[in-house]
Each structure stands twice: as structure tokens, then as C-alpha cells.
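Researcher: Here's my situation. A collaborator sent me these components and asked whether they could plausibly form a single complex. I don't have experimental data yet, so a predicted model of the whole assembly would be a useful starting point for our discussion.
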Amino acid sequence: MLHFRPILLAACFLSLWTPGAQARDTKVALTFDDLPALSIVSDQSYIDTSNIRLLEGLKRHHFPATGFVNEGKLDEGERAAQIANLKRWLDAGFELGNHTFSHESINTLGAADYIADIVHGEPVTRALMDRHHRRLRWFRHPYLETGYPAAVKASLNAWLSGHGYRIAPVTIDAEDWEFAEPYDDAVARTDSAAQRKIKSAYLAYTEKRIGWSLASARILFGRDMAHVMLLHGTRLNADSIDDLAAMFKRLHLHPVHLASAMRDRAYRTPDAYDGKDGIGWLERWSLSLGKDLPDAGNEDPPADIQAAYNRVDGDRGR
Ligand SMILES: [Zn+2]
């Protein structure tokens, strides 16, 4: 074994000394919320196509991913077809997590009803995962609202860890839901010019937000950390996956499994935030560590996208 060592050391030095480049790719776990789909087009075939295309894209690029399910959505479409979409994720080798049954906030439900909503969101996903020899272990809070006041958050966290769940944090959030619904609307109107315009605004905004997250992590931890990116199960992401893959390559981001990203010791940083707002984990850690995050890149989606979203939905963000 010893004779391999000089080669490894040489490789190490080479990568460390490449001028102007990161020593190695930054890991990012891709997570997709609101499965089977976040869509204003309720046609089952539209939702099926979005899932099939997104999964094909992820496989084409060899990207691992975790999908977070709202079982309440199963009866919003054709139940058997909606369940078949969840099965597609598992058949393709991806993991599923719990995103509650109804996508209500803990701020609305309180701890006891929220926990009941998590349990209500388990049976179909758990049964599918059992059949794929996988264990339901990830939980993602709707709206990233984690419980207010502190006692509510503490009782949820105690319940989650007592029931084998790990919280899936978020360190990259490009508000993709806000672009996705105007995009659905453009697809429904067969307005390909609008589709292209929304997609390009989405990609530009995403790149800006990733830049902000990379810069923020360096401020908090003095290094690049493994990130967790929040996305949604949308037609927009299904149609953008090749562009996102090109962006990741350009930014030296390497998609990995959620469990792998979370082995980064940054995730051991306490999250002491017990306010009402749904904020990301970089913001939470900035409070815990007493370090300010940069203003550059920390901005809302473009005004025309927000206006288009309000026109087509008016619902609150996912
Ligand atoms: Zn959601």
C-alpha cells in the first residue's frame, strides 16, 4: 500500500496549487420538494411528463437526488398515477422523504397537529420505500418554518429524532417555485417565447443565489462546505436540468447524496433560531455564530417574475 502514497501526495499538491481554482469540486445535494409535483396545470399527463423528464435528466447527468412528498397531493390528481410517479423516483434509484401530508406550516397547526400531519404523510411513501428496501428518514419543513416559539420547535425536534427522522436543511434556495408557476402557465398557453424568457431569468437568478450561498459559507466556516439545494418537482426544473448541469460544472459544483453532503461538519453547527420566519440554514448559522452574511446576491427574484407569479397563483410560496 505504501507505494501509492507519493502519487496521492503529488495529486494533492497539484490540486491545491492549481492557480485560481477550488482545490476540488464543492459538493451539493439536490432536493426536490412538493412531490408528486408543484404545478398549476392539474392535467395528470402533464404531471407525469414533468416527473419522467426530470428523472431522465437527473439520470442522464448521474445526479443523486432526494424527493420530498406531500401525500395530500395524491388525491389532487389521479391517485394511482400520482403514486406511480413516486414509484418512478424509487425505481430510478432516488430517495424520498416526508414533507408533511398537507404542506401546512407549523406556525398554523401548532406542534401536536403538525406532528399528526407528518404521520398522516407517511403511509404510502413508507410502503413504497419498504418495497425498495429503503427507510423513510428525511424530513423537510414546508416553508422552512421550523417551529415558534422555542418550545414548539423543541417538541417537534424531539419527536422527529425519536421517530428516526433527520431534518433536511437548505443552504441554497433560488425560489424556483416563483418561476415555476408562470412557466407552467406559459407551457399551457403554448407561449414558447415566454417559456424561454422565464427559464433564462430562473437560471440567471439561480446562479446569483448559488454565488451568494458559496460566499456566505466561506464567511461562516472559512472554507467551502457541502451544500443542500432546495428545488421543487416542477416542469421548469424538468426542462432546465441540462442548463443546471452546465451551471454546476461551470461553478465546480458536484451533486452528491443528501447523506453525503450532511457528513460535512458544518451541519453540526447549532440552529438556535426559534423565530416564526422560514429562513435558510446559512442565515440560522449566521445568527448562531454572530457573523454577517453578504448583501451582494441576497435579493428577491426579478419584479416581473413576482408579478407573473401573483397573476397566475397568488398562493404563498412553497
Ligand atoms: Zn414545499
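Model: Some features of this prediction you could bring to your collaborator: The domain at 31-312 is CATH 3.20.20.370 (TIM Barrel). The pocket of zinc ion is lined by residues 33-34, 99, 103, 142, 318 (CB under 6 Å).
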